From TrEMBL, chain A:
Cytochrome c domain span: 217-343
Keyword annotations: Heme, Iron, Metal-binding, Oxidoreductase, Periplasm, Peroxidase, Signal
Domain of life: Bacteria
Pfam families: CCP_MauG
UniProt name for this protein: Cytochrome-c peroxidase
A Gene Ontology molecular function term of the record: cytochrome-c peroxidase activity
Sequence positions that bind heme c 1: C78, C81, H82
Cofactor note: Binds 2 heme groups.
UniProtKB/TrEMBL annotation, chain B:
Annotated signal sequence range: 1-26
Domain of life: Bacteria
InterPro entries cross-referenced by the UniProt entry: MbnP-like_dom (IPR046863)
Positions of the Copper-binding protein MbnP-like domain: 39-251
Keywords: Signal
The protein's name in its UniProt record: Copper-binding protein MbnP-like domain-containing protein
Keyword Signal: yes
Database matches in Pfam families: MbnP
Length: 362, 275
């Protein structure tokens, strides 16, 4: 009986073997990369279970981030306006310029700790990190390209005329198993790389983790002033509460409506996302339109020039009815000393985040 | 010995199952042995202007505000398709298979086919014009096919990258009342209600009753529901007439106006016939 079954089974295996031409599973595949949450940080907003980091995925994202192939002119990459040395901002540019030197209407925001962001851009127009890159790619004053055209260009690599002839089909295969290049994979690779842009190694972090000598006396005084006057908006270890607020900037000629441009709610008029203050000493100029060139000017705004606009944030109206924050000259000096302790040297010098040699700084 | 026995039984079972599935695959072509559980319904979206056929780029039409216009682009999303039987039971097309982009310049896009529809007589159809808020906020792996956000705004792109969300209806054309720069008008209607803060919701649900005719889905034949889609209804509302002279551009920046356009075009679908 057993023998009969055995023969039957054997014959079945033999005849079905021809149908299964699958090779032996390749155990190599992309290597998982553990994403570590810095001590004291909250859980990330980005859902890593949908897009687990791999070494190959992050590397692909890094190439895509810096490669000008994302733009119509093949010159402007993400890294053009988000430069590592300036904590991924466009240092020295009040308003960023994209292809053909076209000027944008806002200052390019820092890309750091994006893992904890629940909305993106100054107006929060995008709610999912995976959908962020479509915006600069398609914006006529940034990359002025069509996302599907970027995919088509990537499929045609390696291009011998490129600065570095990157073989994207191979990199996609290494990262995702096949050489198919599509929106989902491209965006997920970019998200993987941006997830690794974590800044949590400033002098302040050392102090926060218990090294009481990490901050000087002046910096500690600044910290106390910060907690009293600034931390209601620039909250917690991320130094932002991710809210949208009007901080009393006189609207410029283009009357940027900020958040109201997305929600159409009059209560959101001239409100902008509260930026994180991590690396703030490196990200001048400041505000959504880059109007202030130094931290001194920023603090002068808060003490002298907060406008009583209809939607001015109530926290900027003092008990005596004056607008702004009351700070003395020495308070300001102490605060600035503290703010500079948020600079993260390790972050801006981390070679894993740097341009692999394909980028352009314009 | 026992373990070998278990192995053999397991192997035999696997093979038996494999054999069974092979044979069922082969038999599905002959209806005698296996009862098919579904058929298909096709819907044709036939774009018209009043009682005339819509022709892009060349024919001049007039709206209720007596404004001349030529249509150069007419695209819209149809989603969340359902069919109703006389007994009130409803067949809901599986979510992932229920998004269609109808484009006047692409004939094939105007015929949609719903497969695996349970057999029976259907008396009404229901669908959404636009893309529901769930899919507007879904992760990128749920945005494939017509929902791929990589489409370009300069071409047929139906996704706003700066204010993340799909454009539900895109109507563009030219008119003597168009904007003073190039004589064109642009109506891009989207907005799904907002992600974490409420905005205007321009998704609209259309119900088309089949009246005296029925759409009978059988194993051998699937009906085609021929819908007429009248562009004039985008302008000419039951409530508000949209004038090209007054509004040569309606997009995300004028949510209240875009709402009026959506209230108008929800009425553009009527049943032509079923065959």
């Amino acid at each position: 009986m057993y023998r009969a079954i055995f023969l039957l089974v054997l014959s079945l295996f033999c005849c079905s073997a021809g149908d299964k031409n699958e090779p032996i599973p390749n155990k190599k595949g992309p290597k998982l990369l553990e994403w570590t949450k810095p001590k004291g940080f909250p859980e990330p907003v980005y859902d890593l279970s949908r897009n687990p980091l791999t070494q190959e995925g992050v590397l692909l994202g890094r190439f895509l981030f810096y490669d000008g192939i994302l733009s119509r002119t093949n010159l402007v990459g993400c890294g053009t306006c988000h430069q590592q040395a300036a904590a991924f901002t466009h240092h020295g540019h009040e308003l960023s310029h994209g292809v053909d030197d076209r000027l944008g209407v806002r200052n390019s925001p820092a890309i750091q700790n994006i893992a904890w962001s629940n909305s993106f851009f100054w107006d929060g127009g995008v709610h999912d990190l995976d959908l962020v890159p479509f915006n600069p790619i398609e914006n006529p004053v940034e990359m002025d390209e069509k996302a599907f055209n970027v995919l088509a260009k990537l499929r045609k690599t390696p291009n011998p005329n490129s600065k570095i002839p990157v073989d994207y089909p191979k990199m996609f295969k290494d990262a995702f198993g096949t050489d198919e290049i599509n929106s989902e994979r491209m965006m997920k690779a970019l998200s993987q790389f941006m997830m690794t842009m974590v800044s949590a190694n400033s002098k302040y972090d050392l102090y926060h983790s218990g090294e009481t000598n990490a901050l000087s006396t002046q910096e500690k005084k600044g910290l106390l002033l910060f907690e009293k006057n600034c931390s209601s908006c620039h909250q917690g270890v991320l130094f932002t509460d991710n809210s949208f607020r009007n901080n009393g900037l006189l609207p410029m000629r283009n009357n940027d409506r900020g958040r109201a441009g997305i929600t159409a709610n009059p209560a959101d008029e001239h409100k902008f996302k509260v930026p994180s203050l991590r690396n703030v000493g490196l990200t001048a100029p400041y505000m959504h339109d880059g109007r202030y060139h130094s931290l001194e000017e920023v603090l002068d705004h808060y003490t002298e020039s907060v406008q009583k606009l209809k939607t001015l944030d109530p926290v900027l109206i003092q008990a005596n009815g004056n607008t702004g924050i009351a700070l003395s000259q020495s308070d300001k000096a102490d605060l600035i000393a503290f703010l500079k302790t948020l600079s993260d040297d390790q972050f801006i010098k981390d070679t894993k985040l740097s341009d692999p040699g394909i980028g352009n700084s314009l | 010995m026992k373990s070998i026995h278990q192995y053999l039984v397991l192997a035999f079972t696997v093979c038996a199952v494999t054999l069974f599935s092979y044979s069922s695959g082969a038999a599905s072509s002959s209806a005698e042995t296996f009862v098919a559980t579904g058929g298909k319904i096709r819907i044709e979206f036939d774009n018209v202007v009043g009682n005339r056929n819509l022709v892009l780029n060349s024919v001049t039409y007039k709206n209720a505000s007596n404004e001349d216009f030529v249509i150069t682009k007419f695209n819209y999303f149809i989603s969340n398709v359902k069919f109703k039987k006389a007994d009130g039971s409803v067949y809901i097309v599986p979510q992932d298979s229920s998004y269609f982009l109808i484009k006047e310049d692409t004939k094939a896009s105007q015929h949609i086919t719903l497969n695996n529809v349970p057999l029976g007589d259907y008396v009404a159809a229901e669908f959404m014009v636009g893309v529901d808020s769930a899919r507007n906020t879904a992760p990128i792996e749920k945005r494939f096919g017509v929902l791929d956000p990589s489409g370009s705004m300069m071409d047929d792109g139906m996704y706003w990258a700066w204010n993340s969300g799909y454009i539900f209806t895109k109507l563009e054309g030219s008119s003597s009342k168009g904007n003073p720069v190039n004589g064109k008008f642009y109506y891009h209607i989207g907005l799904f209600g907002g992600y974490n803060q409420r905005t205007v919701n321009n998704t609209r649900v259309v119900k088309v009753a089949f009246g005296s005719v029925k759409a009978s889905v059988t194993t051998t034949s699937g009906p085609e529901v021929h819908l007429l889609v009248d562009v004039l209804k985008v302008f000419d509302g039951p409530g508000t007439n949209v004038s090209i002279a007054d509004y040569n551009s309606i997009m995300a920046g004028q949510p209240a106006k875009s709402q009026q356009v959506a209230d108008n075009y929800v009425n553009m679908f009527t049943l032509g016939h079923i065959h």
